[in-house]
């Protein structure tokens, strides 16, 4: 499941696009302003941006998104179709520039094309209890490890999953839980991945905060 951040100030159109992309298997985070987009873009793999916004422009949003994620798909979707506007969009890093009104099937095809271009994600497969990297290498997971990866996948790339959140997801009681168990679990995960592949697992421990995964991870 790919996370898409959709920035569109016209609520009816935004809902229509979000519902359609959700029906195609994506997770869509909606925003109607630049301020809302700052939250929606966290962990997103692709963004769809309107240009004219009540508190800025889609170009501002594109610069914000690029500062957070270099490997991010960007589709501009706007009524401003002049050549100068399109050139500005491409110069800023847009992969595609679509002029409203747009056919939703065309938009979906472009989204899929951009996702293919930027490459595969890590995948957490809940049904198989395994983690798969972009090269197809697999790591079998325990039940508790599955809970960890479900939480980091939902949080998004680079986002911190707080220790308390993880303890409660594991069914533990925060006041009495031995937090060393979490660090031991993460340490063993890293060690197993290193032994299997020779590479480091991009799972970080943030002292006294929690854990984050430094790459895009999708859950299936």
List keywords for this structure.
single chain, 220 residues, alpha/beta, Arc Repressor Mutant, subunit A, 8 helices, elongated
Question: How are the SSEs ordered, and which strands pair?
Answer:
Layout: E1 3-7, H1 11-23, E2 27-31, H2 34-40, E3 46-49, E4 52-53, E5 56-57, H3 58-68, E6 73-78, H4 83-91, E7 96-99, H5 104-118, E8 122-125, E9 130-132, E10 138-140, H6 143-155, E11 161-162, H7 163-169, H8 180-197, E12 203-206, E13 210-213, E14 217-219
Parallel strand pairs: 1-2, 1-3, 3-6, 6-7, 8-14
Antiparallel strand pairs: 4-5, 8-9, 9-10, 11-13, 12-13
Structural write-up:
The strands form 4 sheets. The chain has a 5-stranded parallel sheet with strand order 2-1-3-6-7, with helices on both faces. Strands 10-9-8-14 form a 4-stranded mixed sheet, with helices on one face. It has 220 residues and is an alpha/beta fold. The protein has 2 domains: 3-118, Response regulator (Rossmann fold, 3-Layer(aba) Sandwich), CATH 3.40.50; 122-219, Winged helix-like DNA-binding domain superfamily/Winged helix DNA-binding domain (Arc Repressor Mutant, subunit A, Orthogonal Bundle). The chain is elongated. The protein starts with a strand and ends with a strand. The protein has helices at 11-23, 34-40, 58-68, 83-91, 104-118, 143-155, 163-169, 180-197; strands at 3-7, 27-31, 46-49, 52-53, 56-57, 73-78, 96-99, 122-125, 130-132, 138-140, 161-162, 203-206, 210-213, 217-219. 42% of the residues lie in helices and 23% in strands.
């Amino acid at each position: 499941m790919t996370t898409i951040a959709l920035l569109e100030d016209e609520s009816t159109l935004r809902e229509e696009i979000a519902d359609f992309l959700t029906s195609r298997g994506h997770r869509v985070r909606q925003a109607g302003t630049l301020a809302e987009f700052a939250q929606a873009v966290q962990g997103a793999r692709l963004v769809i941006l309107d240009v004219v916004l009540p508190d800025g422009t889609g170009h501002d949003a594109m610069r914000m998104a690029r500062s957070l994620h270099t490997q991010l798909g960007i589709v501009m979707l706007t009524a401003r179709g002049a050549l100068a506007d399109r050139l500005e969009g491409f110069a800023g890093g847009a992969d595609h520039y679509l002029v409203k009104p747009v056919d939703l099937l065309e938009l979906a095809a472009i989204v899929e094309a951009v996702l293919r271009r930027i490459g595969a994600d890590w995948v957490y497969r809940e049904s198989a209890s395994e983690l798969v990297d972009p090269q197809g290498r697999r790591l079998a997971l325990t039940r508790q490890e599955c809970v960890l990866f479900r939480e980091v996948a939902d949080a998004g790339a680079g986002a911190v999953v707080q220790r308390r959140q993880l303890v409660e997801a594991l069914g533990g009681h925060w006041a009495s839980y031995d937090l060393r168990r979490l660090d031991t679990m993460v340490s063993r995960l890293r060690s197993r991945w290193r032994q299997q592949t020779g590479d480091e697992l991009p799972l970080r421990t943030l002292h006294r905060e929690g854990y984050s995964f430094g790459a895009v991870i999708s859950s299936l």
